[in-house]
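Thread amino acids onto this structure.
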């Protein structure tokens, strides 16, 4: 009788250990799935999408977008681009309405490539850059 209960205890222990190991394996499998998340403020290497801690893509500020994607042409008026700060060159364009300007900047117009040099810009970022250019005119 004594031996029998010892055997039962050993069986329980074996089942428990076996399950314990399986559980550990399952957890480590789940943990080993590599997910690369690049948080705001960290160096992301080649990744171009920066995530904020709340998970949404961070919009660049208007002057950042302008500097990276628009200044190359709009600072000096390359290829007939209306220059930032040049009221005369912007007057007739502003008269078309902001929506038309943003749409043309998004799709490209004449010598201007779609989204300028900011291929990964969102519509909101392009709109901010257009407003930035206009408000400085
Ligand atoms: C490669 C040069 C180049 C770059 C880069 C560039 N533009 Fe332009 N942009 C032009 C040229 C040229 C025009 C004039 C096009 C025309 O009217 O024929 C223009 C015109 C515009 C206009 C006026 C559109 C209209 O309907 O009259 C807006 C707004 C504009 N650009 C916004 C932007 C923004 C915002 C950026 C950056 C995200 C940008 N551009 C980058 C060359 C450029």
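Threaded sequence (137 positions):
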């Amino acid at each position: 009788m004594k031996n029998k209960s010892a055997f039962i205890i050993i069986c329980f222990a074996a089942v428990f250990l076996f399950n314990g190991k399986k559980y550990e394996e399952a957890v480590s499998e789940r943990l080993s799935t590599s997910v690369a998340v690049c948080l705001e403020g960290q160096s992301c290497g080649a990744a171009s999408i920066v995530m904020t801690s709340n998970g949404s893509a961070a919009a660049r500020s208007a002057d950042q977008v302008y500097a990276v994607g628009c200044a190359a042409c709009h600072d000096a008026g390359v290829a007939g681009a209306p220059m930032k700060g040049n009221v005369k060159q912007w007057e007739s364009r502003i008269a078309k309405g902001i929506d038309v300007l943003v749409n043309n900047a998004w799709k490209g117009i004449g010598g201007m490539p779609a989204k300028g040099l900011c291929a990964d810009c969102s519509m909101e970022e392009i709109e901010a850059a257009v407003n930035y250019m206009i408000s400085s005119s």
